[in-house]
Design brief:
This protein folds into 3 domains: 76 residues, 2-Layer Sandwich (GMP Synthetase, Chain A, domain 3); 197 residues, Thrombin, subunit H, CATH 2.40.10.10; 34 residues, no CATH class. 14% of the residues lie in helices and 37% in strands. A hairpin with a 2-residue loop joins strand 8 and strand 9. The longest helix has 19 residues. It starts with a helix and ends in a 5-residue tail after the last helix.
């Protein structure tokens, strides 16, 4: 095995210049060949590409040979390779995928830059830049967010322009004063006086449905805008999220992560803390590709097309607003 490895490494040194000259290859190395999704014990030369393309779409000179002097090759799609940066730092200009937040929250993620009425805006979640309905239009948005050292107003990057109100559920949700329960008790007492056996019960209102957790903020200086996503690059349009679709995102907490759509047409009850529950419909669900603080991240497929806006999750799941619902509700587009 040692001799074989030595031979493969020598062959790579001889072939790497030619392989890296092929249009879609951005890295080469020695590794183990993967067949049918499983790693084998066979050494090979791995050619990493931005996107795996069909043979028909490539000119002959850019095709990777199946073997080189008897040594097998493998093609590994990895996307664009970029120098990594700390997403919790201060960025000017600021791309999507970095820390930001309303001055009264901890921190979330600047999703991406969008356009409305010929102006550019930050797109993120309501609960990131509108403080879960508790903000005022014109409030300062900081980059980085307060938890990451952002100071108000020194680190102001934008002001809140618009948000989609989150409809919280009633009793058992956003009813901390117990108003509904108190009303039911009074009506039940009156019914008892008149001999009625019917009783009212305070219940959770499941009719308050949400499509998106989204908001936009206008930058104070157009020069503070970098219209791309950290560690991903430019967004290449939008598309419909489908079962099994490969995903990628860049967020404040976990940085660049990948996953896939495991469920569509999801209805989910999301806990916002302080006894506030909100029901969301027509959502996408992916696996464990996020943690707290990644809320607001733009979610893209492996073609860098935007699929949705990340807003909630658990240790094993990530919930995503469909991009079509976000854009139509806020009447925004990509720049």
């Amino acid at each position: 095995m040692a001799t074989q490895l030595k031979d493969v490494r020598k062959l790579l040194a001889e072939a790497k210049k030619e392989l890296l000259g092929k249009s879609n290859v951005n890295a080469v190395g020695v590794g183990y060949k993967t067949t049918a999704g499983k790693k084998t014990d066979d050494l090979c030369i791995v050619c990493s590409v931005e996107v795996k393309k069909s043979k028909e779409s490539l000119p002959g000179r850019d095709l990777i040979p199946k073997t080189i002097q008897g040594v097998p090759t493998d093609v590994n799609p990895i996307g664009v390779l970029r120098a990594l940066e700390d997403p919790t730092g201060r960025f000017r200009p600021a791309p999507g995928g970095v820390s930001c937040g309303h001055f009264n929250i901890t921190a979330g993620t600047l999703g991406c830059w969008v356009k409305k009425n010929d102006k550019l805006y930050i797109l993120s979640n309501n609960h990131v830049i509108a403080n879960s309905n508790n903000a005022n239009i014109g409030d300062n948005i900081l980059q980085p967010g307060p938890y990451d050292g952002g100071n108000n107003p020194a680190d102001k990057i934008a002001v809140l322009s618009e948000y989609v109100p989150i409809q919280f559920e009633g009793v058992g949700g956003a009813d901390p004063c117990g108003v509904a329960g108190a009303v039911a008790s009074v009506l039940n007492w009156l019914a008892g006086l008149f001999g009625s056996s019917t009783r009212l019960h305070a219940r959770r209102d499941i009719e308050a449905e949400n499509l998106v957790d989204a908001a936009i903020a206008e930058p104070v200086d157009p020069n503070d805008i970098l219209n791309e996503i950290l560690e991903i690059g430019a967004i290449n349009g939008i598309t419909e999220g489908e079962l099994g679709m490969s995903l990628q995102k860049s967020g404040r907490t976990t940085g660049f992560t990948t996953g896939s759509i495991q469920q569509i047409d999801v209805t989910a009850q999301v806990n916002y803390g302080s006894n506030q529950i909100a029901t969301f419909v027509d959502q996408l669900m992916a696996g464990a590709m996020s943690q707290g603080g990644d809320s607001g991240s733009a979610v893209l497929n492996d073609q860098s097309q935007m699929v949705g806006l990340l807003f909630a999750g658990s240790p094993t799941s990530t919930i995503i607003n469909r991009v079509q619902n976000v854009f139509s509700t806020l009447q925004i587009t990509l720049p």
